[in-house]
Protein 1
Amino acid sequence: MDSRAIGVFDSGLGGLTTVKKLIEYLPGEDIIYLGDTGRVPYGSRSKETIVKYAQQDAAFLAAFDIKAMVIACNTVCSAAYETVAAAYAMPIYEVVSAPAKTAVETTRSGRVGIIGTVATIRSGTYESEIKKIAPELKTYSVPCPLFVPLAENGRTDGSDIAALTIAEDYLKTLKDAQVDTLIMGCTHYPLLRDVIAKVMGPTVTLIDSGAETAKSVAKDIRTNKLPQNDGNAGSIRYFVTDSIEGFSALASEFLESKVSGQVKQVALE
Ligand code: DGL
């Protein structure tokens, strides 16, 4: 039994796709979420800047005496996972290896698509994770930088013309390559699931990186690798680095529960 919280961070709203699954799988755990909304997006920045931001995000969460940390951001995991993990003794979860493994297990055609931020795609992290397990698979990677601002602005509806037009353009090469499995390698992208699914069609399986990672955390708790909080119903506190209004409205809508009372604005620098 360990009643300390699990810390989760992302550049913005995207990590909530991971939080939603953590709540579903581990309703008894307390969660502390940090969204660096004042500096989102990370995905178009240099590796040096992403590493610096990641260190500040992790230090903020570690100050709460948490029992584990989930880096719910593929961009940070691709650029700074080793740096962050080396700085702390607690378990630090990344969001790349679990979805890569699921994609390998899911594909039947052997053609896997990967979408992510410019930094994630540039790093080649997903390709190397997949090649480690199944070198024979063919991977096709496309950066989709406009998906993050669409998600942060709530333009996620499956009939949103702007979102659909952008998605058609980004995903064309993956449709042409006839991938049957598509890794949404950015935690913001499941917010656009309806748009992405509409463009890719019903035969393509979409893999949610945050959800796959939440499954791994839940498995570690089930198998006592990570101590459980078997006290009361879990709670969540949210911290953001920009104003709380926009975040609270979109987060409440996405998590289907009102979050405004639990959100605080903080400065990381
Ligand atoms: N949600 C983040 C990811 O998983 C990054 C979005 C961004 O800040 O560009 O990559």
Protein 2
Amino acid sequence: MLKSWFLQPLWFRVLTAMVAGIIAGLLLGPQADALKPIGDLFIRGIKMLVVPLVFISLLSGVISMPNPASLGRIGVKTMALYLVMAPIAVAIGIGFAVAFTPVAGTPVDGLLEGGPPDAKSVSILKLITEIVPTNPIAALAQGDILAIIFIALLIGIAMIRVGDDAQPLRAFLGSANAVIVRITGWVLETAPFGVFALIAWVVGAQGLAVLVPLLKLIVCLYAACLFHLFVISVLLVIGVGRLNVWRFYRGILDAMLVAFSTSTSSGTLPVTLRCLEKNLGVSRSTSTFVASLGATVNMDGTAIYMGMFALFTAQAFGVELGFAQYAAIVFTGTLASIGAAGIPSASLVLLPMVLGSAGLPAEAVALVVGVDRVLDMMRTMTNVTGDAIVAAVVGKLEGTFDQDVFDGTRAGTDSAAENA
Ligand code: ASP
């Protein structure tokens, strides 16, 4: 029995755990809180992997790239796709809110208790300057992903230039890589248990009664994210990447489910990287570079939510928005999605900035604090999928991609496509 459980593919086990978690949450109610430490342990386990995995994977990916010059092109294409997708996502959020008026029927007055979280502004200039760390060790210790990407690229390029003298470092990295990949595999085997506990906790703690007043907003966000996932993203996967959508989604499912249950795209990164390489055949260097960058700056689900929530607020307070306000929402919503950290409820602290840009009251955020986890799950799943799509599309465009692994005609290893 136990053996046949472990023989099932991970996505199947995680999905089963999710259904079992929902049932356990409904049966146990608030008592499901007792399961939360198991979920926390899983989240701690995957977070523990993020820094070593990104650093070692990216570095070993760069030094084994057949054509290191293509790194620049990969960077430009990645950023271009990220920057195009974010405003589109905000506009989708606005569109769905205009079409479905999620505020209708929401007892706004009764829900407005407590103040909004403190607003956080995003300075893109600061984000850019801090990519260069003053202390690389501190950047690693603090898990500063953009700075870690920078250091890894720098060391990797220097190693290529140094040539033979860097051989001992190459050998060391090769071993370190094998070890971290093995540990990742172990931690991921615990995913079904973590997911079960987290879903049971969310369902038990939130209860349907809390969700009912905001049900329309929740449904509206889920619908908009699904539209993004299955229309916009599919267009990208087929139109730009010329990839089979079904295979793509099957390959990335583990990461989508883990993102949904943990609500953290940074934490899900080890799973995303593994899916990209092992199931979809995207090379180690491309997957690590694109997905790590994406976990920090590309958040389509968050962007959708920024647009939608601004409109929800305008509807709640009866504010008519003009063209300038819509433009401000798209602009600040895009910035907020770039600046949001890949952690649970990161959106909450950035919403006031978006609302403020259109002259809307920040107090509205207090309306959704209680149910944010349910919204966050969908946002995070959309965020992670968006990163994976860009990684697969860029990999395909740049030829750093193994079609046989993607097609399932050859089993992927953890560095399957490096020499593709
Ligand atoms: N939890 C989301 C993420 O990690 C960010 C958000 O709050 O929207 O991607």
